[in-house]
C-alpha cells in the first residue's frame, strides 16, 4: 500500500503528462498491485454475495485518465485508484462494493451511484412500498455507526410521482443510494486493512440486496 499511496501522492503534486511519462513504470507497478488487491476483494465478496459472481478486476478498476472535454479542470489524471465490484463490473449498473484509495480522501462504499432514471425510480418505489424493511437495514447499529449516505446531489423536494406528505419522503430524495465510510491514511497502512475493508463490505450486503430486489422488479 505504501507504493500505491506514494505514487498517488506524487501524482497529485505533479499532475502533468511529462511527469507521468517519466513515472510510467511506477504507474504500471502500482496499478498491478491495485488490481491484485481487487482480485482478493472479489474472491472474498463472492463468499457472502454470490450475485457478484466471477469478475475481471480490470473491468472493476476505473481508469486513471480523466475525461477533460467538459471540465474546467484540465488535469489529465485522477489522483486516486478505485474499483467497483459488482455483477457485470463497474459499468453494469448493479449494486456493488467500492474501494477508493486517495491520499487524504480514501473510503469504502457501496450501493449504486447515479443510477439511470428507470432504476432510480424502481429503488424509490421499492422503498415507498417497503419502508420498514429499508429503515431496518439503514438503522441497524453496525450499518448506521459505520456509514453515511452520499447526499451531495440530494433533491430538495419530493421526487415526481411520490406524495410529498409521505412520512418517509426524505428517503426518496436521494439521487444516489450509496453509503460510504472514510478511511484515514493511518488505516491504509494497518496490517488488517484488507480484513477491515472486507468486514465493511459485509455490512453493506443487506443494503445491496434490497437494491437488487428493487431493480429486478418489473
Describe this structure in words.
The chain has helices at residues 2-13, 17-22, 24-45, 57-60, 117-129, 131-138, 141-144, 185-188, 193-215, and strands at residues 81-86, 96-101, 106-111, 148-149, 179-183. The protein is an alpha+beta fold. Strands 1-2-3-5-4 form a 5-stranded antiparallel β-sheet. α3 (24-45) crosses α9 (193-215), α5 crosses α6 and α5 packs across α9. The mean pLDDT is 94.
Given the C-alpha coordinates, what overall shape results?
globular
Low-confidence stretches: none
DSSP helical segment count: 9
* Head-to-tail CA distance between termini: 43 Å
Tell me the radius of gyration.
18 Å
Compute the average pLDDT: 94
Helix-residue proportion: 40-55%
Secondary-structure element sequence?
HHHHEEEHHHEEHH
- Strand adjacency order, main sheet: 1-2-3-5-4
